[in-house]
Amino acid sequence: MDFYYLPGSAPCRAVQMTAAAVGVELNLKLTNLMAGEHMKPEFLKINPQHCIPTLVDNGFSLWESRAIMIYLVEKYGKDDKLYPKEPQKRAVVNQRMFFDQGTLYQRFADYFYPQLFAKQPPNAENEKKMLDALGFLNTFLEGASYVAGEQLTLADLTILATISTYEVAKVDLGKYPNVAGWFERLRKEAPGADINEAGIEEFKKYLNNKE
Q1: Among residues 9, 65, 145, 164, which one is catalytic?
Q2: Of 95, 170, 173, 204, which has the most beta carbons under 10 Å away?
């Protein structure tokens, strides 16, 4: 199973943790976006949207990290703990995953990436939106051990990858005690936690090289 990825990417790390959780081995295909490897004709045949992560499972191509995560669990998972079948439990997991995609990760990207890639000054409005998203997550975790119910799910894995990136970018998680406590526990306990930590280190190296 080929996996086109960059280790510093939060969406890529989320997929790698999911693969670890279901016991699937990925054939890692490092894809250098800066060198334009995602625009090569052979990659465009696999993924015309030319984005990573991209998974190729016996000729079946799939991209968008959360879709890949769900696919891996539904095809290779031994039970439904990571992605419950019960409609209401699954709905909460879906909501948290969509929250990560459309709010938590997106607002981080809107605030941080223009500074990183375009050397733009910090935008106060975008920073407030990003911190509001952390506040929402802090509320979700009030009195809870996991972000979407009483057990670890795919929502925890994708949000763990995102919050790891927040932490590398030196966002102060201490102001959000529920998030900070969950993060410190999950970054050690989650399946594939070591993979996530290694990816974080790669992202740190990239940031240091950009400075």
Answers
A1: 9
A2: 173
157 neighbors 14 (Cβ within 8 angstroms): yes
Residue 164 annotated as catalytic: no
What pLDDT, in 10s, does the model give residues 93-116? 999 999 999 999 999 999 999 998
Which of 151, 24, 19, 145 minimizes the C-alpha distance to 81? 151
Architecture of domain 2-76: 3-Layer(aba) Sandwich (3.40)
The predicted pLDDT at position 200 comes to 92
Whole-model pTM above 0.85?
Answer: yes
- 15-53: pLDDT as tens digits: 999 999 999 999 999 998 889 999 999 999 999 999 999
